[in-house]
Amino acid sequence: MEKPEKLLIDGKRLDGRAPDELRPLKIKAGVLERADGSAYVELGNNKVFAAVYGPREMHPRHDQQPDSAVLRCRYSMAPFSVEDRKRPGPDRRSMEISKVTREALEPVLFLELYPRSVIDVFIEVLQADAGTRTAGINAAAVALADAGVPMRDLVSSVAVGKIDGTIILDLMKEEDQFGTTDMPVAIIPRKKVVTLLQMDGHFTKEEFKQALDLAFKGCEKIYEVQRQALKEKYAIKEGE
Ligand code: ADP
User: Fold this and answer.
1) Which distant-in-sequence residues (6+ apart) come within 8 Å of 178 by Cβ?
2) What is the residue range of 139's domain?
3) pTM of the complete model
């Protein structure tokens, strides 16, 4: 990908968005028959599935926790999901994203209700265009709810960043690659608790505040779409 001369032209981004605008977002709950819960998320050009299995007995048994369930997350990117084919299999990046995804989701789960059990979350990225960890977390939260796992709330996630000196919401690939800063955030919307915050690049203190505020606003919109997806799946259709 060649570096564009500017990422912001007359206040508009390369795809025509305003700085505080999300990419088009679609979420569908319950899309995979053989998973206990599942969701599909399209965020701009990202296409991500999440599948949940469990709670079920943990094997191998020596990984069991006597007083709580274990949440296992596996983020994986398909070889055909990026411009240059990605080598299949786990790598440092996917292991890191799996770990931060688990940490982002754990606080909303009542893991203590399921001793010696495991809840598996598989995130499969079929098409990547920056922000896949945030799309994966949004999908996983809906898939966990779809599986009927007791939750305090959903988790909503979006990245914020800086391009040409301007704070922006929901970076796409060019902005991720050539912008100055990328800060993925996940929150528990009703409690306004941050469960993921990473940063690649720099913000001044003021910029950080502005960016975090923008991330909260973006997550509110995502939260609405997540809830709508669950409502659509579980709505009692007329005549049923
Ligand atoms: P995120 O997808 O959460 O933004 P990164 O910032 O690490 O995570 O990656 C940004 C984007 O870079 C990805 O969404 C994907 O489009 C691209 N990318 C990541 N890993 C690879 C890879 N191994 N090969 C090609 N492109 C990649």
Assistant:
1) 3, 4, 7, 163
2) 13-239
3) 0.97
